[in-house]
Amino acid sequence: MSELTTLLLGVLGVFALALAVRLLVRNRDRIAFASVLVFIGVAVSAAGISFGLDLTADLILTVFLPAIIFQGTTTLDVRRLWRNASLIVVLTLLGLPLAIVILGAVGSVVFGVPLLMALLFAAIILPTDPAAVLSIFEELDVSERLAVTIEGESLLNDGVAVVIFTTLLAAFESPSAATLLATPTGLVGIAVDVAVVGGGGLALGSAVGYLAHAVMRRLDDEMSILLLTVLVAYGSFLLSEHYLGLSGILAVVGAGLLMGAHEETHDKMSTSEYHVQEVWTTAGFLATTVLYILIGAEVRPAAFAQHAELVLAAAVLVVLVRAATIYPLVTATNLVGGRPVPTYCQHVMVWGGLHTVVPVALVLSLPGSFPSREELQVMVFGVAVLSLVVQGLLMPAVVSRLGMGEAG
Fold this sequence. Notes:
Layout: H1 3-25, H2 33-46, H3 57-74, H4 78-83, H5 85-111, H6 115-125, H7 130-139, H8 144-173, H9 175-181, H10 184-216, H11 222-243, H12 248-259, H13 271-298, H14 301-306, H15 308-336, H16 343-351, H17 357-364, H18 373-401
């Protein structure tokens, strides 16, 4: 068989497995579809079955992630997002760097590795993935404000984390850069990189999205609108990431937000725009379905068992560090803002921080010669699987226990 035939068979195998899972859980509101997909992927790996599909950083970052992010941003309620912008910015620009520092300091002691290595692991693992938890929220009557806050934080911290990761990786590969990083000048340099690379990507994407929105409002042909959205989603990513050295992820965020920001959010979408949005919803669903199964299938049970203590320690630390940043920062924001976030919502924000797609892409992007690369991959994949399976499957119970939602 040709390579293309083998690839097609692998993709069909993934979809067939996903269909079987979907049929099993479709009437079970308390079971997270994404969590079951990852669990089945691990089972497939344990059985020694291979789909013949290689999960690579380029595949995730260049092919899947722009579709997932663009679909998520174009369906966001922009007005509600704006009303919660102060909290989202605090959690992204203060919470994420603080969490990286805390996890790096504690992880250096717990894992017995150099501080820079622990900081790099923290930058890799801490970006959150809203897709899985939001799919659960769709089945439950959960506050839309909470869902928007979690999704907004995740969309922004993905891009910021990639910038910090790139800076730390360069410092790890250069002793002089590592020394400079420990100085106030080095810390200022990281902040400048985040502002220029991240902010520049967001601004560029926003400009592209605004112009594309103006063009789209003058089109009534569904296929033309669909082609325009594809060009905006992937064009903004490639232009920022590969040609201008800016954040491609944040460029897609900006493009999606501005292209989907209708006068009445989405109440006045034309029929053509609505149908195109349904296409993107389908594309996002297919992308996450493939990713979750492949992430589970990439887990090697033997390596997981060999480093089980390391993986469990990392998974527990990630949750504790998120709690150590969410509670004080949200509480402080409550004192300043006029719309406080209740404590029970903060519990969901902590438990709903699932770490999957971007962490896996970042750890796969490490150079082959990177020291302890295998151990880092085992830890990141282990945390990704545990967060999706354990936190994802328990999320409905947590929401119900807090009295926040009922099965729809």
